[in-house]
Structure formats: structure tokens, C-alpha cells
Amino acid sequence: MNIEELKKAPIGVFDSGVGGLTVAREIMRQLPNEDIIYFGDTARLPYGSKSKESIIRFSKQIIRFLRTKHVKAIVIACNTATAQALDAVQQEFDTPIIGVIAPGARAAVAETKNKKIGVTGTEGTIRSNMYTRIIREMLPDAEVLGKACPLFVPLVEEGFKDHHITEEVIDIYLREMKESDIDTMILGCTHYPLLRSAIIRYFGDKVHIVNPAYEAAMDLKKILEENGIANENNEFNKYEFYVSDAAEKFKQFANFVLPYDVKSIEQINIEEY
Ligand code: DGL
């Protein structure tokens, strides 16, 4: 593709399911001229409890699919896939690929006053220690308290955002963090911003809550501008959505999360890629 074609090419965004829509939403807000191709791997969700090998295989298949759509850059809108597969896919593909962990870590480092940071995420993300590693590269004496919260993902997928069960689960997982003296907490899974209000209510105003999606969209903007491939004008945005299963359920969710009317979602067989 020449530079003019690249400017007009879409951004690829993927996640294991609906969580990455929180990142897509930020890209829509901050980069309103960009087209987006979104893929949610709903057939193989959750990623959080799967092995590194599986997540690398899934991520490579999805990137091959997105490349058939001629994307100019890819955002891994999933902390688990970022933690397990970002290095491997960056080595294999020449398309610029960014994840959500470095942007989230940077935002937390900028925010904390007492250098005590909480990180919530899936088992895979917490086990990878990637947040701790990146935070300590910037702030070597930071204390990082990590907690895997595996039930948050199904609660979000079920739409139990404000349910009393969700409040109980938040208390079970996050009590230790609440009783510690962290002043900043990272929502280290793209599903968790959908529980943000309940989590903010739980912590009150003593803890600043970081949503890496916002920072990831800023990183993407920077990369596009540095490479001279940002779309400067686009009157009719195109947002396309693909899933590996349960398109109808995904559509309802997408219409709840996005400031945009999602009319159709296409189901594809991702194993073919
Ligand atoms: N949304 C994914 C993340 O950010 C995890 C959900 C899952 O376990 O599939 O880690």
C-alpha cells in the first residue's frame, strides 16, 4: 500500500470477546477519522485461564484475518493476549502492533504519589507479571499488588454490571487491596472498565482507578502520526465487527457499550486463518 492508501486503511482491534469494545470506544472518541475492523473471539473466550501457547496461536490467527482486511495497525485490546502474545506477534508480523499493558502501566506511574499500585486482571495477565515488570522499569521502587479476578469476565458478559452479586464478588477479590495503602489501581483487563462504577463506589476516592484503554488510544494516535498514516478526513466512518460465535449476543452488548448503532456482526471461522 502507498502512503495515501495507508492513510485510508482501517485499524484492526481484537479481544477475546466484548471487553475490547472499551478500547474501540476510546479509539472512536480520540481518532474519529479512523475506520475500525473489530474481532471478538467469542468462541474461545475466556483467554484468561488458557496457556501461553494457545493465546499465541489464537492471536496469530486473528492477526492473519485482520491483515486480509488490509489494516494499517493493530491494537491488541486484551490484556491477556498482550501479556502472553505481544512479543511473539511483533516478531512475526510487519504491521505495527500495540498492546494495552505498557500504556496502562505508564498511566499508573504518572498517577501514583506513594508508589503503591494495585493491578487487577485475569489469571494469565497476573501470572505473566508484565504490569509489575513495566511499572518497575519506570519506577524501580514501586510496590505492586496484583490480584486475578476471574469471575469479573463472566459477570460482565452476563450484563451483571450493577448486580448485588457483582458487589459481593468485588468485595471478595478486592478487600485486601482496599485495606492496603495503594493509591492507584489498574483495571488490567479490558472487561473491567465495564464494572468501573461499581469498583469506584467500592474504593471511594482514596484510590485512583486507571483504565488503560484511554492511554492505548493515545499511543495509537502517536504511532499513526509519527508514521504519517493518520486518516485526516473521513466523512463516512466504517466500523466492522466480526466474531467467532454468538453474533446476536455480541451485537446487543456492542450497542450497549458503543456510542454508535451497530447494525450487523459477521460470524467467521477463525480456525481457517
Ligand atoms: N478481555 C481480556 C483481557 O483484557 C480477558 C477476558 C478473557 O479472559 O477472555 O484480559
| SSE succession | HEHEHEHEHEHHEHHEHEHEHE
Overall geometry: globular
- What is the helix content? 40-55%
**How would you characterize the largest beta sheet?**
6 strands, parallel
Q: Kindly report the average pLDDT value.
A: 95
* Alpha-carbon Rg, integer: 18 Å
Number of strands: 10
Strand order of the largest sheet: 4-3-1-2-9-10
Bound heterogens, unique:
D-glutamic acid
Low-confidence stretches: none
Spatial separation of the terminal alpha carbons:
22 Å
Q: Structural class from helices and strands?
A: alpha/beta
The fraction of residues in strands falls at 15-25%
Count of DSSP-assigned helices: 12
Question: How would you characterize this protein structure?
Answer:
- This protein is of the alpha/beta class and 273 residues long.
- It has twelve helices and ten strands.
- The longest helix is centred in the N-terminal third of the chain and has 17 residues, at 52-68.
- It is globular and about 55 Å long.
Summary?
By secondary structure, this protein is of the alpha/beta class. Helix content is 47%, strand content 15%. The longest helix has 17 residues, at 52-68.
